[in-house]
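Suppose a classmate hands you a notebook page containing two proteins, each written out with its sequence and a corresponding row of structure tokens. How would you begin to make sense of it? This section walks through that situation. The first entry is reproduced here exactly as it would appear on such a page.
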Amino acid sequence: MVVSRRFLPCRCQSRKLDFLARPGSARLVALKTLATSTDPRFATRERQPGLDLLRALAIVLVVFYHAGIFGFVLPHKIQRFGWIGVDLFFVLSGYLIAGPLLASFARGRSPSLRRFFWRRALRILPAYLVILVAYWSAPAMREYLEMPSLWKFLSFTQNIGLRGGTAFSHAWSLCVEGQFYLVLPFLLLAVMRWKRVAMMLPCVVIAGGFILRAAVAVAVARDGVVPFRDFQQLIYYPTWTRLDPLTLGVSLAAIEQFRPGWWSWLTKSATWLWAPALASIILGLSLGEGDLTLALCMWQFPLIAFGMAALLVCAISARLPFNRVAFPGTAFVASTAYSVYLSHKLTIHFVAKGCAARALPLDSGLAISAVLATIGVVGALLFFLVERPFLQLRHRSAPARRKTPGLSLIRGRSRP
């Protein structure tokens, strides 16, 4: 029997399409292997597209905000709202870092503090120290000439007493998280022995921050307005006034582990929860459109934190498409977000000098495209050359715990 050659390509194409469509195909396995080889953090767990989307959104907001400060201004100056990307990072950090610790308690075991701090060190320090050395050894590269003392960066206390207009000032959020990582496991070990205290503590922290910001604002206000420098040093940068998003992130992780009924209700409510979440964020941002008033100091951070926490629930809920649909490029942007965050101000300063030398307006489409592309390239290089090798070392020396199959069902709960 002679088979027509014209038939063979169609048959092969049909088999190829069938192969690509099969859920358990080697093609999908290959794609998962590629994702794992790019980011070792996902060697023992699945990527969650919703969380990747939030990480990508957070870093894009921050990059646009800081680029705008140096002249890369978007139409209507909409980049001025990008500072809330840091609050989104805080909510994500609270949820993702507390989750494994609380999961250990849920299994009836105390987490290994040595393992926790080793994994945190390999995650945070290598890329951070590389950028710190670049800032310290090459003043000409800095976005500002003045820089806080080196010991403040090494001790993760640079955010205390910080003011804007200094080099590597964006490390303040890393200092807040570093202090958070240091205290969190010991705090959980203590409160897990007293369940009522554990339930009350988030309310106490958020109420305490509310009262503290109000007291500071009243003390420094002049004619009802808080001076910008005082707002920066005493309210915006200090750890004790910025715990709202971290606390809410930890609270969501605790609800997921210990209150499955509440967690199920939250995730099922995502179909309408996104609307009040956006409303809360918009209301918080609207408070900042005028003077630095007492109301702004008291309400802005909690409103934005609650909105971001609600968006996190929406991002991981099965009721919405965000955790099922992976938007192209978001996984890579999410993986490189930390490296981009560390290096982006150096890159912005470098591109701004290049544009000035060529008389290219910074608010032009070409200049904005150039700065965004360069930020992405530099961040990717830092990720692949520094961050990723240490993530691989972390995976070999202290791999993340695999989730026990069926654990949720054994504990009488289901994960949406």
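The notebook's second entry, a different protein, reads as follows.
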Amino acid sequence: DTGSLDTGSLDTGSLDTGSFDTGPLDGGPACPAPPSTSMPSGVDSLTCEEIKTKLPAAVADAKRCNCDADCSKEVWRDACKCTTFVNPGQEATPLVIALMKRWSDKLCTTICPLAACPAPTKATCVPDPGGGSFKVCKDG
């Protein structure tokens, strides 16, 4: 009698690894970067005018990217609530989100152009058009 061995059953569960772009075939960086978790301080004390001034600069910083998959977070690009895509892994992105929330919470308003904002559906990571040595998310 060789007997029998009860191996039971092993539940390996499921692991959601998400999806990501591994970058260029030459071994470039994996994308997207993990979202930044640092929350900005001092946003609660900003006036509407200060938020309006700070938002475009914060958006510009949040647009830095390594590959197309980085450009996945849609945010306001200005106080008129026109949207753009940024990199959720950039340190400036939580500031952009906090500024948008503060603008809404304070019921801030501004005069906006009559023309509707173009509504981007995606963005790609391209060399900085300003000549910088980095790439930025360009809406498409």
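A careful reader of the second entry would note: The two ends are 71 Å apart (CA to CA).
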